[in-house]
Every structure is written in structure tokens, then in C-alpha cells.
């Protein structure tokens, strides 16, 4: 695991905006583009190679990722502080990027280290570009996305399954054409497994009717069936840690090889209002020779089946109307959906009030 040191950008005078934006965000904007002051998965590590500059859009802001001379990933807003040209189409100079437009050089902390056209000008030495704190873990690049320049990153803590050395995992990344909140609604709805995934390799069993309950924990809540366990997608835990994630288990039959139950850790990172970066880690507790047996079986047989299940989710979520979560008639199976929506609505209102208060 590697990290970059926390170095907030210099606070600008005048109105306070959410980091990386050029406008005020209200509660609706925040709900649509992502709750700030959270760690988010950004990209799989292998997608940022040495010497490359990789543009991405996350939480409705354009960023560029690159590795410095030591191989540490840096993440900057994709705007040169001089004339806002995208840094991602500039030149990689090891520990800095040179803008293509006028050659202004910005290092991984967002500091302007050189203005070739006017050496010694006031822009040199200023931390004028937003730079995020980054951690690489679980084959993934994570970043803390602050609300304001005064936000202090929370300690980075991986989900339990990914931090446990006895658990073997495989990462999975996809981009879906749908709001990030639709993914969260989907995983907080275990009952869809008995219908949408009925013909899958692992969710064909169990009853198609059930009763559910919410069980509170000190880090979030479980949404679980009260009359069935270990048969289908029977429960999910929503966890609020340094990052928000879901944890769930799907039972496996004997043909799935050695090891314990099949676990999934899931996260959704907003790209914009209508696109999402979806991250899953498929996990199993296995040791010794069984670990290699399970990993071989996964790569050769099970991975393609898991992609089929994800495609079923994607196919439904991408055709939902953008206001699908506004025109509904919910029932008892949807208690988990209602709970997650209330949590994020409260977050969005609180962060909008924080921004408004900073400008009062």
C-alpha cells in the first residue's frame, strides 16, 4: 500500500465552492454527483502505467492521474492553473506535468514549479491546482474527495474482507450509464436476486417471497430476510467507514471448488450525474493449496458467470428513467432502499448547509 502525503491546496479568497467545482452546489447537486468528504475507488491500479497520464471524471470533476518518479500515484484536477488547459494532454516529466499550452509545470502536490514563459512570476511556488490524497490498496487507486479546502481526510481503512490475509479476492471494475444512487438502491434490495438472477449459477434457489428486517450495527446496518439464510442473496450489510461500501454473501454449491462462502464487497463512485464507476471484489476465505485451486477455478470457470450476473444488473439499471426513484410504490421489501436514500439525503443536506455556512 502506498500513500501520498496530505497537502491541501491553498484556500482562495471569496466564495467557498466544493473542491474541484467552479459553482455553488446545493443539496440536489451533491446528491446527484456524490457525497464529499469520503474515500472513493477511482481506477484499478493497472490502468495507470508508469509514464502515462490518465484523465478520469469523478464526482462530476475532471482529474488526471499519473505516477511520479517513485511510482507513487498522483491525482490532480485536470486544469492548468494558468489558463485551465487540460494537464492530461501535456507532458509527463517524472514528478510533474508540463501543460501543452504554455509549458507551465505542476508537480504532484499541485504546486507550480516552473513558468518557462515568465520565470519568477507570482504563480511559481503556489499550490494552485487541486491535489487529492491517494492510497493504492486491493489493486485499486483510492482518493479522498474533500468537500472544501479545509476538509481533513479521514484515516484510510479497507473493508474487512479485503484487509484479511486469509481472504482471497479478485477485483472487478466497470462503468455503467446510470446514476450512482441506482447501484446503491440495487444492492440494498436483496429480493431482486430471486427474480433478475434466477437463472444464474448461484441464485437459483430459495423462495420468491420473503419478509425482511433492518438490523442496526455500530458501523451501519444489515438488511436481511427473516425466514431464509444461506440459500440466495439473503442479506446485505451497508457499512459507513472511511468509505461507504456494501458487504454480502452468496452461497456456493460443491461445484464451486474449495473455500467458504462467496463474499462480495461493492462500491459505486459517481462519474457524473448519469454515469457510475462500479467496483466489486469477489472474495473467498481459503488457505494453502485450496487458495490456488479456487483462484484457478475462478479464472477459468466462475469469472465469466459472475460477469453475466453483473450484466443482468447493468441491463436493468441503464434503462431505468432518470427519475425512476421519484415515481414508485414501495413495499416491505424496500426498507433497505428507503433507509439508504434517507442517509444520503441527510448527507447532501448537511454538506450543502456547510457550504452555505462558509459563505454566510
How would you describe the overall organization of this protein?
The structure is a single chain. 20% of the residues lie in helices and 28% in strands. With 360 residues, the protein is an alpha+beta fold. The chain has 2 domains: 144 residues, Rieske Iron-sulfur Protein; 168 residues, Naphthalene 1,2-dioxygenase Alpha Subunit, Chain A, domain 1 (Alpha-Beta Complex), CATH 3.90.380. The strands form 4 sheets. The protein has a 7-stranded antiparallel β-sheet. A hairpin with a 3-residue loop joins strand 6 and strand 7. Helix 1 packs across helix 5 and helix 3 packs antiparallel against helix 5. The longest helix has 30 residues. The radius of gyration is 22 Å and the shape is globular. Pfam families: Rieske. Keywords: 2Fe-2S, Iron, Iron-sulfur, Metal-binding, Oxidoreductase. This is Rieske 2Fe-2S domain-containing protein.
